[in-house]
Design brief:
Distance between the termini: 27 Å
Shape: elongated
Number of strands: 0
Mean pLDDT: 92
Helix content: over 70%
Strand content: under 5%
Structural class: mainly alpha
Number of helices: 4
Low-confidence stretches: none
Length: 97
């Protein structure tokens, strides 16, 4: 992980911007994969219904989409050695879901 302690402010801001861009692109790709490849046809066709089946399909879609994004983000964080914190990831996924 990249230490952000004694670096000049400009360098810290550059690193933060690069991390933001990498996370944004990773989550965007994860969203596309989750929506178009992971989501089942049943979920896509049912999640908008105003009944129990619709709520269950929507919940299943949210879970599968969140897991897909988590796998993508974990892979990118490990490959790119991104300075992410567990609390930041958990908070981000709670807001996202």
């Amino acid at each position: 992980m990249i230490p952000l302690g004694p670096l000049p402010l400009e360098r810290k801001l550059l690193i933060m911007a690069a991390v933001f861009a990498a996370v944004f692109i990773t989550l965007y790709v994860g969203h596309l994969v989750g929506d178009h490849w992971v989501q089942s046809g049943h979920q896509a066709n049912t999640k908008g219904q105003k009944n129990r089946a619709g709520r269950m399909a929507c919940a299943g879609h949210v879970v599968s989409l969140t897991l897909t994004k988590a796998v993508c983000l974990t892979s990118a964080a490990l490959v790119l050695d991104l300075p992410l914190t567990l609390w930041g990831i958990v908070l981000g996924f709670c807001v996202d879901a």
